[in-house]
Write a structure and sequence with these properties.
The complex is a heterodimer. Chain A is an alpha+beta fold. In chain A, about 20% of the residues lie in helices and about 40% in strands. In chain A, β12 and β13 (about 305-310) form a beta hairpin. By secondary structure, chain B is of the alpha+beta class. Chain B has helices at about 5-10, 70-85, 115-130, 195-210, and strands spanning about 20-35, 35-55, 60-65, 135-150, 155-175, 180-190. The chains are: A alpha+beta, B alpha+beta.
Chain lengths: ~450, ~230
């Protein structure tokens, strides 16, 4: 039926315009448990479509939750009406989509829709109970799962259909002493079925969050200053995703809001730095088979040996920037949203540093786990707060510290990286941009950065 | 579908539980300007329902698309089945006080009927984009009208219509190799040309002012600070 709607849509469009349509059918479950009590249980289901008509450099978009041919006809008429009588744009780019015709079956082993809610509660409780160690004041566990079935078509004659499943478990352990609260969060998730919870030790996840939180009971705030720092995989990932990755999204390049505009082929980081964005990693939370313009997912080398090689492109930005690089980065949160260049699984690739990464540091800070932060891609300024840190003294990890934040200018800091470890991990998360939230991962190995501003007390 | 339709659905339910149902129909239009030029025009309509159920002091929520009355019945069944696993940390009943009746907001109009302001935004952004030291002006302007109808098992009903407008400007200023950004947001029920001028003006002033600024030094110890804009307290 979805393909009938897409074919009907194609019959309404003309050869002098580019047009595409996304149909999405979704279901989701959320459970929040705090200190053993269920705080929230909610289910959502729905479907709908979104269309775009691109003509003379402008997009007309229309969407509806009414999934009928009549609704599609009305949407096309509305989108055309919005574009009518507009002054032609200076942008004369012609969109050239990639032709694909595939219907992919789900690749997961155990659909979350076929697992009973009792079993989901059992999984959640096993993590929550294991996290409740002596000294922990509060534990919160957030379970979510959701399946979306996508069918995407365009005037190229493309029709692709595929499904995505995003189960996730997030545990937060809190400690309190002398009026100060500290928290450590751990999570597990993917674009995968319920088997992710069967194949991983959720009790260990809960215990680890709490053990690390207990280390912070007597932690003092770090003293602010300029330090040599080591970032764990989580903070490496956040820096790569937030401080650098967003600046590679080509809509920002085209709009003139990115510090990386015009820098392809230029050195932007240390020679040992390689940054990858890869939506083809099996089962990773940020992975997908096709982007939402129907372009097949591809691994992208954003930075190679410190040189900027690539942006994250949609079909239009690939045409405007004349780089002919249809690398399939257009994603939308729902079928109602406009797909824009987004990251997927973004990481600093493992290096070959196999010595003790702390050994060469007389006085420094090691950062663990991302808590919150911000980046301004237009100026390159960033600030990230870690869940906790540890001082490094004379080459050894020393006392735990809290309230440790890293700040600076993206390209300056990228050039100060002088060691990239060998063992990589990805941290799952959700990325927000222009009011749209998409599942992603970010990560890398441990990295060492010289002379960075650390905020604290 | 209005609150009386919803109340009839609730009255016909056979479950021994309490229910509260809201149906939300939202229609919106927006434009996006990129580097001083109109890039996107958007229209959309969404119709969803949310059913809350309280059963034996446990509560649950089921959300879904709504097109006809029977969709509501399916959703209530979903919420009921979920409720036995539901939250125990919740209210024991829904409201039994009829809310003040709010008149529909007559000021909010969709972009397609707000052509003067829309054209003014497009023209102003284009002019600003040609100004000295301004490299890129990006604007998002949207209008939204939302109708909410609801009812619960205590016989309470509500119908209201809300309108809203959002105007967000983001400006990049450049001077040689120096680059800085500024932004401003306005959320309102209605908008005038003066609001547009203020919004674009503040974003561009912020961006230009930040050129040649240096990074704030890291200071050990404590400093007195001043929060400039009361909005920062939000």
């Amino acid at each position: 039926m979805d393909e009938d709607i897409i074919r009907h849509f194609s019959s309404l469009t003309s050869t002098d315009e580019y047009a595409d349509i996304r149909i999405g059918r979704y279901s989701a479950l959320n459970i929040l448990m705090e200190d053993g009590k269920t705080k929230e249980v909610s289910e959502s289901k729905g479907d709908g479509f979104g269309i775009r008509i691109y003509k003379q450099g402008r997009y007309g978009l229309a969407s509806s939750t009414r999934l009928t041919k009549r609704a599609v006809e009305e949407a096309v008429e509305k989108a055309r009406k919005l574009l009518r009588n507009q002054v032609p744009s200076r942008n004369k780019t012609k969109i050239e989509p990639e032709y694909n015709n595939m219907r992919l079956k789900p690749r997961w082993k155990e659909s979350t829709e076929e697992v009973g809610i009792e079993e989901k509660f059992r999984v959640l409780r096993s993590c929550a109970d294991a996290a409740k160690l002596k000294g922990i004041s509060s534990v919160s566990v957030d379970y979510s799962d959701g399946i979306t079935e996508w069918t995407i078509g365009s005037t190229a004659g493309n029709i692709v259909s595929f499904s995505e499943s995003h189960p996730r478990l997030l545990v937060s352990s809190f400690v309190r002493k002398d009026g100060i609260t500290q928290a450590v969060r751990k999570s597990i998730g993917g674009n995968i079925g319920f088997e992710i919870f069967r194949n991983n030790d959720l009790e260990k996840l809960g215990r680890t969050a709490s053990t690390e939180a207990l280390n912070l009971l007597d932690a003092k705030p770090v003293k602010g200053g300029r330090y040599d720092v080591v970032l764990d995989y989580s903070m490496t990932g956040v820096y790569t995703h937030e401080a650098f990755g967003h600046a590679t999204e080509a809509d920002g390049i085209v709009a003139g809001t990115s510090i990386l505009e015009g820098k392809i082929g230029q050195r932007v980081g240390a020679e040992i730095v390689n940054i990858i964005d890869d939506p083809t990693i099996p089962g990773a939370r940020g992975s997908f088979a096709f982007d939402q313009e129907g372009t097949k997912a591809k691994r992208r080398i954003l930075v190679g040996n410190g040189v900027l090689l690539s942006y994250l492109e949609s079909l239009e930005t690939a045409g405007i920037l004349d780089r002919n690089e249809k690398n399939g980065a257009a994603r939308g949160m729902t079928p109602f949203n406009n797909p824009i260049p987004r990251m997927s699984n973004t990481f600093i690739a493992p290096g070959d540093f196999d010595e003790d990464i702390f050994e060469d540091i007389k006085l420094g800070v090691s950062f663990y786990g991302f808590q919150y932060g911000y980046t301004d891609p237009g100026s390159g300024k960033f600030m990230f707060k870690a869940q906790y840190g540890r001082m490094i003294r004379n080459g050894k990890l020393a006392e735990y510290v809290r309230d440790a934040a890293l700040s600076g200018y993206t390209l300056d800091v990228l050039k100060r990286i002088d060691a990239v470890g060998r063992d990589m991990r990805l941290d799952d998360g959700t990325c927000g941009k222009s009011g749209q939230w998409v599942p992603v991962t970010s990560g890398g190995p441990d990295i060492r950065i010289r002379g960075v501003v650390v905020g604290g007390q | 579908m209005d609150s009386e339709d919803i109340r009839r659905v609730i009255d016909a339910l056979k479950y021994k539980a309490k229910f509260e149902i809201f149906v939300v129909t939202s229609s919106g239009e927006s434009i996006e300007i990129e580097k001083g030029e109109l890039k996107y025009v958007y229209t959309g309509d969404i119709s969803t329902a949310s059913v809350r159920c309280i059963l034996d002091k446990r509560s649950s929520v089921a959300n879904g698309k709504i097109e006809k009355i029977n969709d509501l019945k399916d959703l209530t069944e979903q919420a009921y089945k979920l409720a036995r696993f539901g939250s125990t940390d919740t209210q024991s009943d829904f409201s039994n006080k009829q809310p003040r009746i709010l008149s529909a907001d007559k000021n909010g109009r969709p972009i397609s009927k707000n052509k003067n302001i829309t054209d003014y935004i497009i023209k102003s952004a284009a002019e600003l984009n040609r100004s000295d030291k301004i490299y890129s002006v990006n604007v998002y302007f949207s209008t939204n009208s939302t109708k909410i109808s609801g009812a619960n098992t205590n016989g309470i009903t509500v119908d209201r219509t809300d309108s809203s407008i959002a105007l967000n400007s983001s400006v990049i200023a450049k001077d040689g190799n120096d680059q800085a950004s500024g932004g401003w947001s306005t959320d309102a029920v209605d908008i005038s040309k003066a609001d547009v001028d203020e919004n674009l003006g503040k974003a561009s002033k912020m961006a230009v002012s930040m050129l040649k600024s240096r990074q704030a030094p890291t200071v050990r110890g404590q400093l007195q600070i001043l929060l400039y804009n009361p909005l920062y307290f939000c």
